[in-house]
Amino acid sequence: MSNTAELHGFPVGFFAEEMTRAFLAFIEASHTVDVASPDGGKVMYDTHSDPRTPGGEYADDLISLGFVHHQKFGALLEDTIALDTVSVADYDAVWVAGGGGPLLTFKDSPVLHQLIAQFYEAGKVTALICHGSSILLWARLSDGQLLADGKRWTGFTDEEEQAVNESFGMTLNDYTIESEAAKNPNTSFRHRGLNEPFAIRDGNLITGQQQYSSGITAQLVLEALEELD
């Protein structure tokens, strides 16, 4: 997940549900899960998605609330693994959460771009959700080709960006995934309606549209992992 960044004067991190719902699905399926970020160290739920936010929209997100208060799991957010210490060979899959941070912190993180490309080229399950799929705008394979070329994928849409902008009364991001993806004639960015659950699997690349897609995207990951066994 993203390290903390500043957006219009307030701190942003990763969208809580986009990590915690998948985390729960994976451990319930008896997988071991590590938590990492580009720089390592402490990370935070986006205030918007944090169920502890007074009067917040996601106060009923019991999974994220339970995670952050769990003695073992909550501590993982205090000291995430730095990506430059991660070996692809040690894992079967990678999951990238979205949120307010990724459009700010992922674009200029070559270690992240390279790691995601390495997971994909190694035949490992490579999953990205919401703003996490922004990595596909930049990640290149070892031959220099964009990972997204020839792929079907999804992420946070322009319609969803506009809805968030209207909610906050300002334009939050300088660019959007859907608009940037449209500049690549060799890729296929697909989506459904506003806040509609949607996920795509294209080989070992799995993407989800937004937080409401966390469950179905995680299920596609579990199905792909079963095929590896």
TrEMBL record:
Domain (DJ-1/PfpI) ranges: 18-210
Keywords: Glutamine amidotransferase, Lyase, Stress response
Record InterPro entries: Class_I_gatase-like, DJ-1/PfpI, Prot/Nucl_acid_deglycase
Cellular component, GO annotation: cytoplasm
GO process annotations (BP): methylglyoxal catabolic process to D-lactate via S-lactoyl-glutathione
Gene Ontology MF terms: glyoxalase III activity
Keyword rRNA-binding assigned: no
UniProt keyword Lyase, yes or no: yes
Family: Belongs to the peptidase C56 family. HSP31-like subfamily.
Entry protein name: Type 1 glutamine amidotransferase domain-containing protein
